[in-house]
Design goal:
3 helices; single chain; Histidine-containing Protein, Chain: A; rod-shaped; alpha+beta
Length: 104
């Protein structure tokens, strides 16, 4: 029974290590926790943009990866580009903003 117990313990340890590494992030892939955090940040930024009257009428796309928010889409003025960036930066959890909005 002792040998079987050690083999079973070893297999459980290997399974736990594999599961842990499977959830770890890499520079190009998020871990599970980071994905959930980024999804929450994206939702908060979208809500903040919709709550800003001067931006409400535009289709602004928001994507987040490891706390970096990327804004894309079309707006009508440079002021709208700046305002969208300000709004996104004001959301908690946002580390940086890549503003790729285009004035149309």
């Amino acid at each position: 029974m002792g040998k079987r117990h050690r083999i079973l313990s070893f297999l459980v340890c290997i399974a736990l290590i594999t599961a842990f590494l499977g959830c770890a992030s890499t520079p190009t892939r998020e871990g599970t926790g980071e994905y959930v955090d980024d999804s929450a940040i994206t939702a908060k930024v979208k809500a903040a943009i919709l709550n800003e009257p001067s931006l409400k009428v535009f289709q602004i796309n928001v994507e987040t990866f490891k706390g970096e928010v990327q804004l894309s889409g079309f707006v009508d003025s440079a002021r709208s580009v700046s305002k969208a960036g300000e709004v996104a930066r004001g959301v908690s959890g946002v580390k940086s903003v890549r503003n790729n909005l285009i004035v149309k």
